[in-house]
Design goal:
Layout lengths: L1 H13 L22 E5 L4 E6 L3 E3 L8 E6 L4 E9 L4 H13 L5 E11 L4 E10 L5 E6 L4 E9 L5 H21 L1 E2 L1
Antiparallel strand pairs: 1-2, 2-10, 3-4, 4-5, 5-9, 6-7, 7-8, 8-9
């Protein structure tokens, strides 16, 4: 009897601690290097400053001014597409404005902001996309007479807005810097 009371007391004293609780879901604390930019020149009618973290990739030799800026650490790309303006500005603008509309199915919000840089003779729109859309930002720039450039961010992963949000913010800043430093030749 004494043994059973002693065992019972040991069991009761051992079970008096906190009851086990499931651990809450954690989130990655993603950090990225501070951006450093450098001017890049291409055999194209434009130049801009790019982030040193981005690798330049020109996949299509038939379209050398279709440039991808690869961000291997983020598994993301900024796709840039250049088109000359040859009495087709209206069509180019319509196509560029349709690009963000394609993401309305998955997007929670698409916010457009007008961009104007009189010094570099560029104007256009910047579209920020929130939600599980395939692209988190798009833009277009033009001088309205000769040049037209579009760009979009895409991640090489299934879009999960909460997971890619820090990388998307980082790349949106890079796009804004690209837009601010773009110069037509």
């Amino acid at each position: 009897m004494r043994k059973s009371v002693l065992v019972l007391l040991l069991v009761l004293s051992a079970s008096c601690g906190e009851s086990p609780q499931p651990k809450p879901s954690g989130f990655l604390a993603l950090t990225y290097d501070t951006s450093s930019f450098k001017q890049v020149e291409f055999d194209c009618p434009f130049s801009f400053e790019k982030n040193s973290a981005a690798e330049v990739d020109i996949k299509n030799p038939n379209r050398p001014c279709w440039i991808n800026l690869n961000y291997p650490k983020m598994n993301a790309k900024i796709y840039l597409t250049y088109s000359p303006v040859n009495n087709n500005l209206r069509e180019l603008l319509i196509d560029a404005q349709k690009l963000p509309e394609k993401h309305t199915i998955k997007a929670d919000l698409i916010e457009a902001s007008i961009y104007q840089n009189e010094k570099n003779k560029t104007s256009g729109n910047f579209y920020e996309v929130e939600g599980d859309a395939a692209s988190q930002a798009q833009f277009y720039l033009t001088d309205s007479t000769s040049h037209f450039l579009t760009g979009a961010i895409y991640f090489e992963a299934k879009p999960n807005y909460d997971s890619i949000l820090p990388a998307a913010h980082y790349l949106k800043r890079d796009i804004r810097h690209l837009m601010e430093t773009l110069k037509w030749k």
